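Ticket #4471: complex job returned nothing on first submit. Input attached below:
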Amino acid sequence: MRKPLGIVRVALLVASFLSSQVAAELVQLDQQDDAITKAFYLINETNTTVNSTANGDFDQNGTLTSYFLGKVSDWWKFVDYRGTKVSVIDMHLHTGTWDDLPQSFQDDLLEQIPFPFNFPILAEPFVNILLSAYGIAAQLVCSRIQKGVLFAVYAPETTGLAENEFVQDQINSLPNKFYGLASLPVNDWEKNEADALDLLRQFLVLPEFIGVKMAHPHMKINFNDATFYSIYGVAAEIGKPVYIHTGLAFTEGSLTNKEASHPDFTEEFIQLYPDVTFIVGHYGNKAIFDGLADPFDASFRLATTYSNVYLEASALGSEPNDPDGSLLTGVYQKAKELGLIERMLYGSDGPQFPGYVQSYLERTLDAMERADYTVEEAELVLDKNFKYLFKVW
Ligand SMILES: [Zn+2]
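Support reply: We reran it on our side without changes. The output follows.
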């Protein structure tokens, strides 16, 4: 029954898209009460996310129903890890709009988006939904992830722009689903430093913004450039953690030098701001330079040496970067060996590519099983460490 029905639906969808009605509707989704329903519809119909779940026991057609069932029960809020319900927070998600993505990133996305949404005219509304709070919430529910953290980004030339105010609107458009990390523009720093720090401060004091996001190579600055350390001063002043992207940047125009990529170059500010917790993101993935330690080892060394360092293993375990899952498994094994499980946070770095949020969680659960994590240890990584660090419940 399912397959023919699916074909009919897709045919109807294509027909309606050809008449542009759905496209027009998608464009107007903002602020509508049933937007999350439509996001589900979109995700289901394009078969981008929901073939299986971490549990494998709710199917593509069941998802929308499951969401509404979820309103009266809570079973969708948990993944099954070794027979026990575990809640998950994805602390690394990117919101935004098509218009705010640089051309090179739009081109990458077009290759990943399923037909018929990969036509430029449809890609725009599709991506706007995919990256909106509604679209991300739909993907979280499909993946059985309870909550997510949306990142502000100020890297207009490389990965794009998601301003604090935009992130705030997204967080507030759905109750109790998201937190945010605030950021700031770093262009013409000499001239703009005071204003940029004020902007950061203005958002960082809000309860929905639980920390700062920095992506040095995408923002085209070096870790060890002390002129930017005042940013960590603001984090210290307000008492919130700072997420640091480490690792080789792949987006066009980003810095690829060691000072902007290798975790070792974060050490000076980690020492200078002992009251600020720094989350070393991506474990310095692929930042391999002559004369410097393996970036994974360097990340573990920082966490072992400094009590104000947490680690987050997003992106490095993706299908293209880690086809057999051995990198991610190695990271979880090593963290366990070194007694660092309590410093590990879970993040995916989605949802720009359809289906990624869910598959990254599945790959992580597999890696933790292979690294022989107990249920309690998995709970720390997926949920409890986050709540402890960011003081949210
Ligand atoms: Zn990211």
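DSSP finds 17 helices and twelve strands in the chain. Closing as resolved unless it happens again.
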